[in-house]
Recover the amino acids of this structure.
């Protein structure tokens, strides 16, 4: 992906950069390589909107490293071992009773990067809405695409902040809306997704009218139909979080779900050599380093013999990566085996998750036959045979959560942490802190800049 300048102001509550000049005003452009927001707010050219969409794709992937590492650490899917700064271990693992605070080390990208992407999506929507260079169908396509990615990014913030709630209304960066409780945030995210789906339904047929990277076009999502299926896949994930089980099945049916197709099918974040950026989840195999994402020992301990996912995802090093923080030695003998190159794409939603969503929703609706069939699709692909356990709802959910742990390991979402929390299982029985002597976190803290912003608003 070509790296370009992005036309978006910084969200006020994140940086609180207020001075005698108005940071958020629309300035007259004086640099042709870095145009102002004002230059695209009215009568944007087709090239300008294309650049905005390319910028949105770039922003859409910027959460990847921190969310994968931090949420994965909190769910004890992995450790991100980094000897250069012990806070990667002490703070992120909550060693010796440390808590998630407003000034916690290194977590802000789980908050600000998604909001940067959301603001970029809003800029895309505004630009394409206020120009005559696109047909109505093309405007629907661009706006529907932007809202689909916007909803995905809102959910990232919601998964980190959880009971804190999140801001949904951030269109006016000087007057952002209030923090909404989680349930209401979910309702608003659903609204955005549904609006995007409706707009895509009015976008005609055929290909998306602007260029997208191979992460979309090379995986079957460069068409209007494919983007609608992605929209519904995100809607299915959201429906599970809302415990709307029939809604989840309806969304799965309208998504790119396939009971028999490749479990790897799905859209991806793309990466490349400079001036683009490399895949941040790639680590050289067997490198003699002290900075590495490693598989958490409990994940290895609990595997089923012969599970093909273990061979495919975990690489056994000749020597462990080791660090010591707060007097606690941590060592990982297995590292990530999923990416061949530092330019490999990263799938951000796969058919395997849709199969597991179908299994979970059917189990919750007491559709045992359908749930077991979906479970067996996952198990047979992993080479561990059909499910032979009890078929009570609780037993099936236990099995589904176990399969999600390995099928979705270290995917760019932190599924394990999210799954344990939504089933009220964030406890010592499921989150092994015996080695790292850490804390089981329920959520992250609201950033200090947001607290400061709300205090500022009260006094201005």
């Amino acid at each position: 992906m070509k790296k370009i300048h992005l036309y978006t102001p910084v969200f006020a509550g994140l940086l609180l950069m207020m001075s005698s000049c108005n940071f958020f005003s629309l300035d007259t452009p004086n640099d042709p390589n870095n145009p102002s927001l004002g230059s695209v707010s009215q009568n944007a050219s087709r090239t300008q909107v294309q650049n905005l969409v390319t910028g949105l794709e770039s922003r859409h992937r910027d959460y990847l490293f921190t969310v994968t590492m931090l949420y994965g650490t909190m769910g004890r899917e992995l450790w991100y071992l980094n000897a250069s700064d012990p806070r990667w271990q002490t703070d992120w693992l909550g060693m010796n009773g440390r808590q998630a605070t407003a000034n916690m080390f290194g977590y802000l990208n789980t908050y600000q990067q998604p909001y940067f992407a959301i603001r970029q999506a809003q800029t895309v929507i505004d630009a394409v809405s206020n120009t005559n260079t696109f047909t109505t169908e093309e405007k629907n396509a661009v706006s529907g695409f932007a809202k689909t990615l916007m909803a995905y990014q809102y959910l990232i913030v919601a998964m980190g902040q959880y009971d804190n709630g999140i801001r949904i209304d951030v269109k006016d960066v000087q007057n952002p809306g209030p923090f909404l409780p989680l349930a209401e945030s979910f309702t608003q995210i659903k609204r955005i997704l549904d609006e995007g789906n409706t707009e895509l339904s009015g976008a005609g047929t055929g290909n998306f009218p602007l260029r997208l990277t191979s992460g979309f076009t090379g995986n079957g999502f460069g068409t209007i139909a494919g983007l609608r299926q992605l929209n519904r896949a995100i809607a299915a994930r959201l429906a599970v979080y809302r415990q709307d089980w029939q809604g989840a099945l309806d969304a799965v049916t309208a998504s790119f779900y396939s009971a028999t197709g490749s479990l790897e099918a799905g859209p991806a974040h793309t990466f490349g050599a400079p001036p683009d950026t490399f895949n941040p989840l790639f680590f050289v195999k067997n490198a003699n380093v002290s900075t590495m994402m490693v598989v958490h020992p409990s994940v290895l301990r609990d595997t089923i013999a012969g599970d093909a996912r273990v061979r495919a995802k975990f690489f056994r090093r000749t020597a462990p990566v080791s660090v010591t923080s707060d007097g606690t030695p941590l060592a990982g003998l297995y590292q990530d085996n999923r990416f061949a190159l530092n330019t490999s794409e990263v799938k951000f939603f796969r058919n395997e998750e849709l199969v597991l969503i179908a299994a979970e929703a059917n189990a919750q609706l007491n559709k045992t036959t359908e749930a077991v069939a979906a479970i067996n699709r996952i198990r047979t692909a992993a080479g561990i045979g059909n499910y032979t356990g009890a078929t009570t709802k609780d037993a099936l959910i236990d099995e589904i959560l176990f399969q999600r742990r390995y099928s979705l390991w270290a995917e760019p979402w932190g599924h394990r942490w999210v799954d344990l929390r939504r089933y009220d299982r964030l406890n010592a029985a499921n989150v092994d802190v015996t080695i790292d002597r850490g804390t089981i976190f329920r959520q992250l803290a609201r950033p200090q800049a947001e607290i400061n912003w709300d205090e500022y608003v009260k006094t201005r």
Q: What stands out?
A: The chain has three domains: 1-26+37-76+99-204, 261-282+339-433, 291-336. The chain has 18 helices and eight strands. The beta strands are 78-82, 166-167, 179-180, 268-269, 291-295, 314-325, 328-336, 346-347.
